[in-house]
Specification:
Helices cover 49% and strands 11% of the residues. Strand 1 and strand 2 form a beta hairpin. By secondary structure, it is mainly α.
Length: 72
Amino acid sequence: PRHAQVKQLLREMIATGRLQPGEKIPAEVQIADALGVSKMTVNKALLALTQEGFLVREVGRGTFVAQPESKS
């Protein structure tokens, strides 16, 4: 599915450091336009990444790359 492809792309951007911890990611509509997909597709990908702990959503502020958890 398209949302899985978007999710994988964003996850790779986080893993490679193109998106840094604490960095605000672009708006859903900007990501959708850049990738040629619908806003809903981007929304599904962002929700999945939030549930997996890669992103943090803050009401009224936006979506940010999560700080990595320290591995014990």
